[in-house]
């Protein structure tokens, strides 16, 4: 079993165009969470090489910013084509490297294809404004220019999609991109870089070398990029702890950061909820991706009038859910990423019991022996929102609590430091609209009659408070990858000053 995983990975990487010297004999060992088997040893970049790479990316930017935006879109269109042609192979690699079930591995690649399509259209829509001027014979406009190399730091759980949300936009915006992937998932990053190079080769000479570069390495390599003034924008996805450090370092040099950090997402089940739909949505939201999405449902507030109907059914679903190696059977819940992750899950469950919680599930499931970490998802009935409920544990734990009024539920939902995603289950329009109003959910994402996860790329993705405030993906998120320039143009023969100011000097009048 284990030997075959390694050979399958090798075959996949080969088919995706990654040369063998990049993933064999290197210093970074990669293991598949499916079995704990070592599947590759990836070469790591040195600090000096990383600095030189950033320099090359800065040079690439100078060339790329002069290529017309719709032409830049053509490169992203070709990238989307490569992703379509290689969807099965890349999706499979996501499954082998991260442990996602196959439909989620493929879904991740689909999300990349979607953002490429979005970015291609965007390449003809990087609109600025025309603003009425208060002065005669004057025109005020606003235009958007490329900003420079964009540094991307991504996490293991969406090892390639997060890159694409940033890169597809940054590339049409005229920026080069530098990518520091998670140390846990360098293989999918190598595959993606190979696909990018294929698209760039088809695109032709307009695409400079080093337009997209990869920095495989440890934390020190990430820090070096974060500190580098040649990289004006850093987009970082990961824990709040990491993001706080990145945000501080980037702010100190007056760079711009786009932060997608921890979530502690909640759903509210009201008395008017469709409970069958709620059940299915909660199951996917809380157990999908083995609870390892930043949008995973972690807190469920259930109205006291429906608690005893919904929660026992939910406990049954938790009991019956298939946990296992998703490439060997039809499991819906695959492994946790590693031993540390399983340990944190167990610590949180212990803390929940200490705080008066009743735990259903949460135990280790022996699937492939000692080296892999599968767990039955845990549903924890909590008397109140305390202890581990206030933290994001990156594992399938759902804390369930009772409430009596919607005001109370919304207050509880908002009473955590994170602010990524949220949802309400309700058919009463008053409840729905209150939840979506200014006094409702304080999160970047607020859904109705679905869970908090599984966002489409068309909307802006991101959250408030300690989630970091960044927005990626759709809507006008592209603006973070450009610099805004306001232009005032005088096409008259006099020099009227704004706000009616006069400033007469000898030899002329500065008055209208
Ligand atoms: C993440 O977990 O980092 O909304 C991103 C979702 C996905 C993105 C998750 N589209 O669940």
Topology:
Blueprint: H1 2-15, E1 28-31, E2 38-42, H2 47-64, H3 69-85, H4 87-98, H5 102-122, E3 130-131, E4 138-146, E5 150-153, H6 161-172, E6 177-180, H7 186-203, E7 212-214, H8 219-227, E8 233-237, H9 240-252, E9 256-260, E10 265-269, H10 275-287, E11 297-303, H11 304-320, H12 339-354, E12 358-361, E13 364-365, E14 374-375, E15 378-381, E16 397-403, H13 406-414, E17 418-419, E18 421-425, H14 429-436, E19 445-448, E20 460-461, E21 464-465, E22 472-473, E23 482-490
This protein binds 2-aminohexanedioic acid.
Bound molecules: 2-aminohexanedioic acid
Task: Fill in the CATH topology of the largest domain.
Answer: Aldehyde Dehydrogenase, Chain A, domain 1
Radius of gyration: 25 Å
Major sheet: size, sense and barrel closure?
Answer: 7 strands, mixed
Report helical residue fraction.
Answer: 25-40%
How does the helix and strand content classify structurally?
alpha/beta
CATH architecture of the largest domain: 3-Layer(aba) Sandwich
CATH class value of the largest domain: Alpha Beta
Low-confidence stretches: none
